[in-house]
């Protein structure tokens, strides 16, 4: 399983450990990923995704999974998140047609 956020696409970054004597050794900065069950209001379903803690705070700020997915770029999303986004778009389009 890759260490990449399914919603924001954040992955490992590379940097240096710097010792007191200023010797630099390579290291990886891994994102803080956690499994989260997210509820979609329009679909009435819950989805289990592996997202970063920063993405979880962003979801709360934006107002939920549906709003976040509709505003997100497709390049950042995982294939599972892209399927959810397509479902949300189809549901929103059907609701707009009915209204």
UniProtKB/TrEMBL annotation:
<dbReference type="GO" id="GO:0003735">
    <property type="term" value="F:structural constituent of ribosome"/>
</dbReference>
<dbReference type="InterPro" id="IPR034704">
    <property type="entry name" value="Ribosomal_bL28/bL31-like_sf"/>
</dbReference>
<protein>
    <recommendedName>
        <fullName>Large ribosomal subunit protein bL28</fullName>
    </recommendedName>
</protein>
<keyword id="KW-0687">Ribonucleoprotein</keyword>
<dbReference type="InterPro" id="IPR037147">
    <property type="entry name" value="Ribosomal_bL28_sf"/>
</dbReference>
<dbReference type="InterPro" id="IPR001383">
    <property type="entry name" value="Ribosomal_bL28_bact-type"/>
</dbReference>
<dbReference type="InterPro" id="IPR026569">
    <property type="entry name" value="Ribosomal_bL28"/>
</dbReference>
<keyword id="KW-0689">Ribosomal protein</keyword>
<dbReference type="Pfam" id="PF00830">
    <property type="entry name" value="Ribosomal_L28"/>
</dbReference>
<comment type="similarity">
    <text>Belongs to the bacterial ribosomal protein bL28 family.</text>
</comment>
<dbReference type="GO" id="GO:0006412">
    <property type="term" value="P:translation"/>
</dbReference>
<dbReference type="GO" id="GO:0022625">
    <property type="term" value="C:cytosolic large ribosomal subunit"/>
</dbReference>
């Amino acid at each position: 399983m890759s260490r990449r956020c399914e919603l924001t696409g954040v992955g490992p970054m590379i940097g240096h450990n710097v010792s007191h004597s200023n010797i630099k050794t390579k290291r990886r900065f891994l994102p803080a990923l956690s499994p989260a069950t997210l509820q979609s209001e329009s679909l009435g379903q819950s989805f289990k995704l592996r997202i970063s803690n920063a993405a979880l705070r962003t979801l709360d700020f934006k107002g939920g999974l549906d709003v976040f997915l509709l505003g997100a770029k497709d390049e950042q999303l995982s294939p599972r998140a892209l399927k959810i986004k397509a479902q949300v778009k189809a549901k929103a389009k059907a609701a707009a047609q009915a209204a």
